[in-house]
């Protein structure tokens, strides 16, 4: 923000635990991919190669080389884990992760039915070698609507207890499932309940593939909320939302940019201390594994 002469909220700086921007690569062309990463790496923490696109991407190695060069972390979508599990090919999945020097992996059950016990076992097993992200929430809108809030809370805590470093909260690439209703609106009762649950705010990554969801989550949780499934073309636009220099969040912060216009009592906090003894920083944990 060398050109910023305005009073805006203080943004966490890379490497960071909170304020993460995670992009989704749904198969964008290699030149566009490289252009975005080279231009905006200072704003990007992670890139997820969505669902199983990594299996049909010719330039996967070039994309990974670009990410490593610009110090952006990467991982493969949870659907790849689920498909491998459904075919009893987790050994092949493991080799695929090692082949591409992955340090982060995702354990999810958004499409495949997995018991809580089995999910926890997979998280614990992979956490021995990888920085594990778990995902909570269903991709099917009917399943998502029928998933009790109490189950969301239980799964979040169970996944963290099993060894997941952060929990991704499902909304799909469409932003119309999981934490959202079929019309793409955040489910306020669900979001409120999650944010009042006892775990660190930095342990939650909210999927927010469009401006409406990004604005809603920034408004309710703050400019340094962890956001995922961000489109490659939305990196700069999202940062302006976080800083209150776009119409949608223009009135969210006071004149100094140091606080929210929303009263403290009405803001989600869920900032209880983490008792697992880890720093939480993706970069720290990945760096340790690369030594």
Describe the structure.
- There is one protein chain.
- It is built from 11 helices and 8 strands.
- The chain is α/β, with parallel strands linked by helices and 291 residues long.
- The chain has one domain (21-290): TIM Barrel (Alpha-Beta Barrel), CATH 3.20.20.
- Strands 3-2-1-8-7-6-5-4 form an 8-stranded parallel sheet.
- Helix 2 (60-69) links the parallel strand 2 (46-49) and strand 3.
- The longest helix is centred in the middle third of the chain and has 14 residues, at 149-162.
- The chain is globular and about 55 Å long.
List keywords for this structure.
single chain, alpha/beta, 291 residues, TIM Barrel
Strand order of the largest sheet: 3-2-1-8-7-6-5-4
What general outline do the C-alpha atoms trace?
A: globular
Output the CATH topology: TIM Barrel
Second-tier CATH architecture: Alpha-Beta Barrel
Percent helix, as a range, is: 25-40%
Number of domains: 1
Class based on secondary structure composition and strand pairing? alpha/beta
Residue-averaged pLDDT: 88
